[in-house]
Automatic annotation (TrEMBL):
Coiled coil: none annotated. InterPro entries: Fido, Fido-like_dom_sf, Type_II_TA_Toxin. It holds the Pfam family Fic. Residues 64-174 form the Fido domain. This is Fido domain-containing protein. It comes from the Bacteria. Transmembrane segments: none annotated. Signal peptide: none annotated.
Length: 174
């Protein structure tokens, strides 16, 4: 019974939300034709935000395709990542910042290159970078500075793979 309710919610909920967004879009089109500045202005604001609402709805329902992205040229090792964290000013200013708690950070870095059936689970550099950011924030592998480390490692990883800036001016000090 609960499976039927869940299926109905997932299928019907998506349909209802999509219908509501389509109806809102139709209302906005009608409102935008108004000669009243307040109504036309409100319609203009709604028109600007509708694509975001549609994108959020598509994300919530699993309908956002993953872009192809770039193939990784550089492999981040656990040792490189820890050297990078230790080079951050926060590291020398605190006894807790960037100090690994339980060895889980090594697993996060290794997980970037995890395979299944001979295929990498995170195929593109961008997917790997996003997963690195997400896992460090979610899993809290450090005693302090998880979000700062995650953000810095995200940029460091993208820069190491030449995704940021050009070759002559690295976007990150590493």
């Amino acid at each position: 019974m609960s499976q039927l309710v869940l299926k109905q919610h997932l299928v019907d909920g998506y349909t209802i939300n999509r219908k509501r967004l389509d109806a809102l879009h139709a209302v906005v089109k009608v409102l935008s034709r108004s000669t009243e500045p307040e109504i036309a202005g409100t319609a203009e604001i709604l028109e600007r935000y509708l694509p975001s609402l549609v994108l959020l709805n598509d994300y919530d329902t699993g309908n956002v395709p993953i872009p192809k992205g770039d193939e990784s040229q550089w492999v981040l090792t656990y040792e490189d990542a820890m050297l990078f964290i230790r080079s951050m000013p926060f590291y020398t200013q605190s006894d807790l910042f960037g100090r690994e708690r339980n060895g889980s950070f090594q697993g996060i870095v290794a997980g970037l290159y995890q395979t299944f059936g001979g295929e990498e689970l995170y195929r593109s550099t961008q997917e790997k970078a996003a997963n690195l950011l997400y896992q460090v924030v979610k899993d809290h592998p450090f005693s302090d500075g998880n979000k700062r480390c995650a953000a810095a490692l995200f940029v460091y990883f993208l820069n190491g793979n030449s995704i940021l800036g050009d070759d002559d001016s690295p976007a990150c000090g590493g």
